Structures are given as C-alpha cells and as structure tokens.
Amino acid sequence: MSLLSDLINLDLSGTTEKIIAEYIWIGGSGLDLRCKARTLPGPVTDPSELPKWNYDGSSTGQAPGQDSEVILYPQAIFKDPFRRGNHILVMCDAYTPAGEPIPTNKRHAAAKVFSHPDVVAEETWYGIEQEYTLLQKDINWPLGWPAGGYPGPQGPYYCSVGADKAFGRDVVEAHYKACLFAGINISGINGEVMPGQWEFQVGPSVGISAGDEIWVARYILERITEVAGVVLTFDPKPIKGDWNGAGAHTNYSTKSMREDGGYEIIKKAIEKLGKRHAEHISAYGEGNERRLTGKHETADINTFSWGVANRGASVRVGRDTEKEGKGYFEDRRPASNMDPYVVTSMIAETTILLKP
C-alpha cells in the first residue's frame, strides 16, 4: 500500500516525457501569490517555449465578473524543488486579452526601465535582503513566543543558535536548499533581531532577474510554510513596541560604481535618491511608516540621510566601498513587503535616467 508521501514524491521520469509547469503570478493585493499547474508534452528550457495561459481575474480581485479573463505571459523559468525532475516553476506577469498590462503588473514597467540602453550599459546589480516573520498558525503570534505573551528582550536572537533563541530553523534551511535547487541566486540566510524573524539574501542579480528571483523565492517560502503548518508574514512591523521591524534592504551598484572612481558616482547617485525621497517612500511598501521611525536600525521616514557604516541612515555605504573608492551602496528604506520589480527599477531610473 503506497503512502501519500510516496505518491507525492513519485518519479515520473521513467514513465513519461511529460512535465508539470507551475504557473505563478501576483494577485490583486499586489502582495499575494497565486499559482496553478498544467501538463506539458516535454522539457522546456526557455519561457518563449511556453504557452500563454489565462485565469479568472474576478476571483483574485483583478477583473470584473462580466469580463474576468486575465492572460498569463511566462517570463522566467526555475526548477521545481517540490516535484523535482524536469518539472518547472514559471514566473508570469498578467495582461488583458487585448495585451495591456493589468494595474498590478509591475513587471511590465520595470522591464521597460531595464531595457533602456543607458540602463543596459550600466549592468545594474542588486542584492536584496528579504526579512520575514514566522507566525504560529492558530494564533498569528510569532513562532517561539509564549501564547499571548512575550519572550525576553532583543539581544540574544540575532544570528543565534539554540532551542530557546532560534525558532523555525527547519523552515529556513529547507527554503535555502530549495532555492539553490530552483536556480535562484540565494546568497545566504540568518536569524534576525526579533525572535521568530529571519532573513534570506538574493543576489547579485542583474536587472529584472532580481525581481523574478525574489518573487519565486517568496513563493517557495510560502509553499514550505504551508507544509510546515506555520504562517509567513512580510508585514514591516508585525509586533508593536520595542521590537525590530522587517525590511528588504536593497544593495545596488552599476558598472560605473564598480570601476575606479566609482565612489564619486555613488555619491551622485545617492544625491539623486535624496531628491526623490518622497516618491521612493511612497513606492517602498505598505505600512512602512510603522517601521521607519528612526529607531530599531532605521531612519525616520520623513528625512533622507546617508552615511558610511550607518545602519540608522536611509542609505548606508560600506567601509570597504569607502576604502576602495568603488563598490555598492545599500538602500535601507524598502519594507519587507515591497514589490522588488518596483524598487529595483525605481532605483535604476532615479540613479541612471534622472538627469542632475
């Protein structure tokens, strides 16, 4: 008698050439991920080989019931760590039947920025530090916290080890390996300052691929927490009071910044970011005002600042960058629930395409 787990893990490679493609897209809130699977006749290596598909947009808050069809355009392929074999995950964006991007399709506008010749020439690199919080399923309270109560104050939990300090490591480790299997350029993980909070880093990734990789990494994490029976939240301030919030610090460099004399380019880029501070803040995540208070390693939301090795600034420049006179900088303003397509393209647009 086969166990359910045996059937879930069934290897189809010796039985059929067919593969399963899991189409993934962003739902009506701009934060929720949706997915559905279809069978394809054989292995696929490029998104252009995949058929477009459709879904009921009235059920995701993206179309009216009387005209509910939304079209999925495959944009990026990753190996499927859940089904394995030749099965794939497909990151898609969404369009009307007439071919117009729907309002929640932020990838379309980002792709235009990243295809601009001036941006292409600068080879934009991103490293995104995605923080998140794991919650107990039935009470929506951080993992490892006493029900309705609080653990000891922050201090022992950052990069910690031990059953009384690190909560949810099995989820984190499973996610790390699943992302590597998928082909996502995940570069590390660590426990965060608030207990039950963790971080993974993706990058360096070039241009639009940074957004694709973050979204698929989020999808994989959602799937793993689903199996583990815990709840995932990207709320930028999940617990009020003297607890750190959750961000998505975005490390950034251009070809010019990485070459000799790049530090001057970096300073000019930061100056441009300061001039558009309000516009960036408005696009950097819902509820970010609860996080950017000037406390808990953040700058105040209303004031733009930068500094070398200053984690209380809007933008931080590393000591190595200052010493070597070239490198990258870190935009610390994005919230954990930011849309990586919006943030990465906006940084490129401001620093490269915006004239002094």
Automatic annotation (TrEMBL):
Cellular component GO terms held in the UniProt record: cytoplasm
Domain GS beta-grasp: 19-99
Domain GS catalytic intervals: 106-356
Catalyzed reactions: L-glutamate + NH4(+) + ATP = L-glutamine + ADP + phosphate + H(+)
Keyword GTP-binding (UniProt): no
SUPFAM superfamilies in alphabetical order: Glutamine synthetase, N-terminal domain (SSF54368), Glutamine synthetase/guanido kinase (SSF55931)
EC code: 6.3.1.2
Alphabetical list of InterPro entries matching this protein: Gln_synt_N, Gln_synt_N_sf, Gln_synth/guanido_kin_cat_dom, Gln_synth_cat_dom, Gln_synth_gly_rich_site, Gln_synth_N_conserv_site, Glutamine_Synthetase
Gene Ontology biological process terms in this record: glutamine biosynthetic process
Classification via PANTHER family: GLUTAMINE SYNTHETASE, GLUTAMINE SYNTHETASE CYTOSOLIC ISOZYME 1-4
Family: Belongs to the glutamine synthetase family.
Assembly and oligomerization: Homooctamer.
UniProt name for this protein: Glutamine synthetase
Species the sequence originates in: Pisum sativum
